[in-house]
Amino acid sequence: MDLPIPSDTAGALRALIVSGEQFRQAVADHFGIGVTETVALGHLRVHEALTSRELAELTGLTSSTVTALVDRLEATGLAARSAHPTDRRKNVISLTESGNEQLDRTDEWLADAVENPAGMDSAAVIALLTKLSAAVDQQTAHIRQLPPGDLDKGR
Known about the structure:
By secondary structure, the chain is mostly helical. Helix content is 66%, strand content 8%. The chain has one domain (20-145): Winged helix-like DNA-binding domain superfamily/Winged helix DNA-binding domain (Arc Repressor Mutant, subunit A, Orthogonal Bundle).
């Protein structure tokens, strides 16, 4: 379903986020996994290896939910647990070869989506997306500092 064309930057960014959510759902459907699994795989791709606690913090899931999630990722062969390099009490979760191959294909689809219609060279697209990502990360950190439910009208 096509989204209406936004008339402001916040609307345009929201439309991009919604499109990204639809993309994530299509990828999950294509590979026969859940959206939550694709979120975890994305974090593992960016961070390379994470403890269960780190993955829980990044995804907003409870530790027991992450345990079940990692069990599912291991069962599908997309991720694996291994000993933490410096703390014997912990395990780290990382992508398997199969998980990396799946994300390589997903990255190709994302690159096709961004580079073709933008009419910009890839370096310019990377620079713009990196700046947008940093700005959204900064705003996310700000929101996390607000009391729950605060509308932050004073900015």
